[in-house]
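Re-run with default settings, no changes from the original entry. Doing this only to confirm the output is reproducible before filing.
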Amino acid sequence: MITKLIFFEKGVETLTYFSHALASALEQQGFRTFFYDISKEGASLKHVKRFIKAGETAVVTFNFIGLSGESFLQENHGISIWESFGLPVYCIVVDHPLYYQKQLECGVKKLHMFCVDRQHIRYMKRFYPDIPCEFLPLAGNLTTEEYAVRLRGEADARALTKDWIPYRERPYEVAFIANYVKLPTIEEHFTSQTKEYIDFYHEILNYLRMHPDQPLDPVYERFVLREVPDATDQELKTAYYGMLFLDMYNRTYFRERTVQLLVDNGIKVYAFGKDWEKLPVRHPENLIPSRKQLDSEGCVDVLRHAKIALNTMPWFKDGAHDRIFTAMLHGAVALTDSSIYLKERFRNGRELLFYELEELDGLPELVKERLALPVEMEYLTQLAFESAITADTWANRAQQLSELLLVE
């Protein structure tokens, strides 16, 4: 039975934040945890070896951190320290699995994967059927102090709402948390391609803009098989990996278009993240950029001060993003493009607000209408909190994970 867990920290800030939240919840369930400082490379190696007890220890990580062939985690005979001890490995992938073709094909031993979108699981079962894979949606973030309250129980957690800034007094009418990347910057990926390939890529992008409800890999497959009808699954996976920049281009296009529409229709948008001052808009007076990238605690603080938390999904068509649940936990109204999963879980206008990428032109009017209804919006935030605090914290996700660990 697994009783000891190894996590990683000091790599990607967001994933470190998730890891500590998950570890704290698992510690409350009786697990012992160890954090490997990935920034110090081999410095933690002797300590982690002392912590490991074969048969009782597992690795829990995000996005293949610690599982990507890091040299300082390899033994002399070329296998990872985790494999040498026979440790089971649990990896939560917060992007589409096609981003991790190399890691998935290197044969990580005793790997169990979790995906944050149910359509990603279908991808895994098709291309990597031997790797166990389950759905584990992202969760909302609480500060360290709030998380301690949450772990004492839901009744205590509900007291957190007493510290909310009243909805009508919140200074940010619409807050948006993300970095801005100019499309021309992403277009640099096209420059080394032939005109034939560039036309092919733009055809895919145009299709996704016209059909924004479609997931990535089936669209990619349709276009690749049109050109190469007898492409094998291995060739398809390789083609998908070579088109990763199209995903970034596509999500940036919709992120840019969404903020532009609001700003140019008289709605003030407080944009938190790098380079929003570079966004071309007709009414720059309505765009208030923070000019810096926030850490996870900073993002939580923004949402405490927001009336509406605008979200654009990273092309998750059957999943959710942590920004949605974090907003729900802090009294901001989550306004997001929809997904199959979100529509199953929540009622539009009750726990959150949906908009559709196919109908973006109607978004400014929706925001204006809702800002004019503060009583209804405040009631929505209460319903949203009740839902998220009972089902969408990292403590909830830890419970699902622990059920697997206890039978390992």
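The chain has three domains: 4-139+397-405, 154-182+249-392, 191-244. The domain at 154-182+249-392 is CATH 3.40.50.2000 (Rossmann fold).
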